[in-house]
Design goal:
Strand content of chain B: under 5%
Order of helices and strands of chain A: HHHHHHHEEEHHHE
Helix content of chain A: over 70%
Structural class of chain B: mainly alpha
Largest interface: A-B, 120 and 114 residues
Number of domains of chain A: 2
Structural class of chain A: mainly alpha
Low-confidence stretches of chain A: none
Oligomer: heterodimer
Largest sheet of chain A: 2 strands, antiparallel
Number of domains of chain B: 2
Mean pLDDT of chain B: 91
Number of strands of chain A: 4
Strand content of chain A: under 5%
Number of strands of chain B: 0
Mean pLDDT of chain A: 94
Shape of chain B: flat
Radius of gyration of chain B: 22 Å
Chain lengths: 266, 252
């Protein structure tokens, strides 16, 4: 017997979507958002039991951080478990939260980051910059809206209905989905290296002759310069003490120096 | 070009609200391209916003805020560059000369917001002890203030004082350096892609990287087409893995 109506559950899902990160802070990250999301549940289940309520408030203020959409599943599970087990289930829930948030973040960042950020982002960038078209950003927006109105409610319901069993039944499916998303993402990056990384060599003059380096590069490989630069960046980023902001600086410096001497041109 | 006061106000408010959307509903208000287009509409040149946003988005394709890390704020950069560029001429050099510094300098506002919210966290901890549920929720909601200010303030200052500064700098920059900045604008997407390739298991998926490259470089397939082929590959991979797998734990 359910203690929450469908409407209340939808409202709780919405609470998580809205509140999960507005109070994000370095100390507990999404912990405050999680606690705030759970407040109506705590009131409903333990409102009359001061000791249980106090315990639930403390436990749900613990550190929490995951990919927000994957958090829908965890919140759904949590509500179902506490609804069935009451105050005795709070410790179980705390263990589930802390054991799932890490792996779920990894899966969610890969699936949502790669599909949303990389695939739809790449299509939008390609059409915006190379064709001056709004179609790509429209497609991306449709994806964003689908995640918000279809996928996230679905994930919440999945967590609520299946509870912990979901983790065992879904584990290999989630892993398969992650691997599939990675292959798609990597392929799109391969495409974007060709279209967006515009490395074009200039000419050098030596011994009275002028050599057009770009003509030479084209003989080796189309977009040879782009491949070379991405290879260099990949190698640099793997080195100790290197980070993405330093890499950004290095690439700008390369562009300024080689651009000044017209070794790289537009 | 200088902006009217109403334009600065509208863009400042948008920046603050868009950040809240990025934290929650994520319909894309805070997206780099979307913000560019919106700014373009406000300054009367949406296509400029589309191109500026698209170019800056290409630098950020591989970069997500994984695990709460702060990343360059290309959204603010898109607003600023779209607002000051005045037109599509020389837009590449504007993007790198002003967009990149703004994107990196404004990282500190993001850090400040995440730090400021610890104060609300501590206040909430006190209400946990007293069991004051309404106040706990209020503390969470108050987090919206540092978050929206972290985007609204840099946009306001940049738009209010930036254009004059930009005019001064443009007069002083030699042509060769400008050429260098334009080159930088063209090659910078490499950084974002590399970050993504380092984040993903690229070596294991090298075949798909090569395939994506070949489809565009040798066969001129549009990116949308490559995405569809990649989607087909993803379906096959998913089917193969789910048919063969006998359960197992999440091991990532």
């Amino acid at each position: 017997m359910s203690k929450f109506t469908k409407k209340e559950l939808r409202a709780l899902n919405f609470r998580w979507i809205w509140q999960s990160q507005i109070g994000w802070n370095y100390e507990r990250m999404q912990g405050l958002g999680y606690l705030s999301t759970m407040l109506p549940v705590i009131e409903k289940l333990y409102g009359k039991d001061a000791k249980a309520k106090d315990y639930a408030l403390r436990v749900h203020s613990q550190f929490f951080n995951t990919q927000p959409a994957m958090g829908d599943i965890i919140v759904g599970m949590d509500i179902a478990i506490e609804e069935a087990g009451g105050a005795n289930a709070i410790d179980t829930v705390a263990a589930i939260k802390s054991s799932l948030m890490g792996p779920f973040a990894g899966i969610g960042d890969t699936i949502f980051g790669v599909i949303g950020g990389t695939v739809f982002g790449s299509i939008a960038v390609d059409l915006a910059v190379n064709s001056r078209s709004y179609v790509g950003i429209a497609i991306w927006t449709i994806w964003n809206l689908s995640v918000l109105f279809l996928l996230r409610p679905l994930m919440f319901d999945l967590g609520y209905k299946q509870g912990v069993t979901l983790v065992t039944t879904m584990a290999h499916k989630l892993r398969a989905l992650t691997e599939a998303a990675v292959a798609l993402g990597v392929m799109v990056v391969g495409a974007m290296i060709s279209t967006m990384v515009g490395v074009k060599f200039g000419a050098i003059t030596a011994f009275g002759n002028t050599f057009d380096l770009q003509v030479l590069a084209n003989k080796i490989l189309p977009n040879f310069g782009a491949v070379l630069l991405v290879g260099l960046c990949y190698w640099l980023l793997g080195r100790k003490g290197m980070n993405s902001n330093k890499l950004l600086g290095i690439v700008i410096a390369i562009a300024l120096v080689l651009g000044w001497f017209k070794l790289l041109i537009i | 070009m200088t902006l009217e006061l109403w334009q600065v106000v509208v863009l400042t408010v948008w920046a603050g609200l868009a950040m809240l959307d990025a934290l929650s509903f994520n319909i894309g208000m805070n997206g780099i391209i979307q913000t560019g287009i919106f700014t373009g509409l406000i300054v009367g040149n949406p296509e400029l916003g589309l191109v500026v946003g698209g170019t800056l988005q290409s630098y950020a394709l591989g970069i997500g805020t994984y695990g709460g890390a702060s990343i360059p704020n290309y959204t603010t950069a898109a607003m600023f560059v779209t607002a000051i560029a005045g037109g599509l001429d020389n837009v590449e050099s504007f993007i790198t000369m002003y967009g990149i510094p703004i994107a990196t300098l404004t990282i500190m506002f993001d850090v400040a917001a995440r730090f400021a919210n610890t104060a609300f966290q501590h206040a909430a901890d006190r209400f946990v002890i007293t069991g004051d549920v309404k106040k706990i929720e209020l503390m969470n909601w108050l987090g919206t203030i540092p978050w929206s200010l972290s985007r609204a303030l840099p946009v306001f200052f940049a738009l209010a004082f930036g254009p004059e500064l930009v005019t001064q700098i443009n007069k002083a920059v030699p042509a060769q350096l400008l050429a260098g900045f334009r080159v930088a604008g063209k090659i910078l997407p490499a950084v974002g892609f590399t970050i993504l390739l380092r984040y993903l298991p690229t070596v294991k998926n090298a075949a798909y990287l090569i395939l994506g490259f070949v489809l565009v470089s040798y066969m001129a397939v549009p990116v949308l087409g490559v995405s569809l082929i990649g989607g087909a590959a993803a379906i096959l991979i998913f089917k193969k893995l789910t048919e063969s797998a006998q359960g197992g734990d999440i091991d990532e």
